[in-house]
Specification:
single chain, four-stranded antiparallel beta sheet, globular
């Protein structure tokens, strides 16, 4: 007989004055970032549930989604999607602490009296014609996907620090795209979710370069039998 798992609340983060659209936990550090209608991102410690950083000044309208870049060692990188039709890349250099073993964890626990962490608004990614609803890093952190109310999904490649290049614009949807998700292991966008409740799984083709791969995504199937609006989806292995 399978044992039931109970989920219980262990803490509540301080309330914010405006709507919180999205929250994302860091893949390796005990911190979580929230996206808010007040145009800011707040970073909280998951050790003592206190505010570590307030990131602002980069967007003119609500921040709708946040995503941590995976596989970073000497810095924390956060992508943001905003209703101002842009996405942003934020960077924070991490201090090395060889004695601690996991130096970045020491730096971002929200100790009392510690000054706010210094975040740099490194890149503005523009091109969408309307609100950017979601942003997601690929499994390896080399590619970024954004989706928008303009019915499109853009795929960006990070060429080097602070330099991103658009490698694909996917325009199969007939209504606004609410969320984008990558395959959990491969560097290929797995599914894109639209306002019309359709899911578009894209199948991988043989190619030597992702640019050629993404430009040749075939539409594999459309799932359109939902009765209610689906807001979120997840990859199934």
């Amino acid at each position: 007989m399978e044992q039931s798992t109970q989920i219980r609340r262990i803490a509540s983060l301080p309330p914010q004055s405006d709507r919180v659209w999205h929250a994302a936990a860091h893949p390796s550090l005990p911190i979580i970032a929230t996206a808010s209608s007040d145009r800011t991102v707040r970073v909280y410690s998951l050790r003592n549930f206190t505010l570590v950083s307030t990131i602002d000044g980069g967007h003119k309208r609500s921040v709708r989604s946040v995503a941590w870049k995976p596989n970073t060692k000497t810095e924390s990188v956060l992508a943001t999607a905003s209703f101002d039709s842009t996405a942003g890349i934020w960077r924070r250099d991490e201090r090395e602490d060889d004695d601690a073993g996991e130096g970045m964890e020491v730096d971002m626990t929200g100790s009392e009296g510690e000054e706010e962490e210094e975040w740099r608004f490194a890149v503005v990614l523009d091109g969408h014609d309307s609100e950017v609803k979601s942003v997601a890093w690929s499994a390896g952190g080399n590619f970024l996907a954004t989706c928008s109310r303009d019915k499109s999904v853009w795929v960006w490649e990070e060429m080097d620090d602070d330099n991103f290049e658009t490698i694909a614009v996917l325009q199969e949807h007939s209504q606004d795209v609410k969320m984008v998700c990558w395959h959990p292991e491969e560097e290929v966008p797995e599914r894109f979710h639209s306002y019309l409740y359709n899911l578009f799984p894209y199948m991988k083709k043989e190619a030597n370069h992702l640019l050629n791969l993404v430009q040749q995504y075939p539409l594999h199937c459309i799932i359109s039998s939902y009765i209610e609006l689906t807001i979120k989806f997840a990859h199934s292995s």
